[in-house]
Amino acid sequence: PGLLLLTSFLLHVEEGRASPARLVCDSRLIQKYIGEAKDMEKRAGQCQALPTLSCPAVLPLVDFSLQQWKSKSNETKRQEILCDLALLVGAVVRAQGQVTQECGATQLSQLHQHANSFLLLLQTFGLEAGPWEPGCSPRSVEQTHVTGIFLTYRQLVQGKLRFFFHDLAKDLCK
């Protein structure tokens, strides 16, 4: 599924240059990814006996003020989302090491593939400042419930990522 997601992204990238134009210009795609995030969250919530994480997951705080968001450059938004995704992917990897139950492990694996695909995609779109360099420190919170990881991912896709694609579409889809 992760490879399929990445392939889908790449099929929507214009050939010859790394432009997210086709991806962001088709708003049905982000709606599809929001739906997938909701489905993963729902399926994870249906898993029986998910353990409490003995080593809490450190998750990005992905809430934001729309007014502040609008005042940022697209590159700043991209960097912020990359930081959030990097922290989220790390949390998923650490949680995978603690969840042995099949249902939870399967859902975490799928979440890892989706979040990592977005991370790789956004790394390829250097808008102004060139390629992304890891080393940021987003606002974060510790979470001991596996379902909180899925909630954070859904909120990130539904919020910052959706608005970022919307903002890019204003420039790229004229």
Automatic annotation (TrEMBL):
Signal peptide: 1-18
Record carries keyword Lipoprotein: no
BP GO annotations: cell population proliferation; positive regulation of ERK1 and ERK2 cascade; positive regulation of hematopoietic stem cell proliferation; thrombopoietin-mediated signaling pathway
Any GO molecular function: cytokine activity
Keyword Transcription regulation found: no
A GO term from the CC aspect: extracellular region
InterPro entries reported in the protein's UniProt record: 4_helix_cytokine-like_core, EPO/TPO_CS, EPO_TPO, Thrombopoietin
Cell location: Secreted
Keywords for this protein: Disulfide bond, Glycoprotein, Hormone, Secreted, Signal
UniProt record similarity statement: Belongs to the EPO/TPO family.
Listed name of the protein: TPO protein
Higher taxonomy: Eukaryota, Metazoa, Chordata, Craniata, Vertebrata
Gene responsible for this protein: Thpo
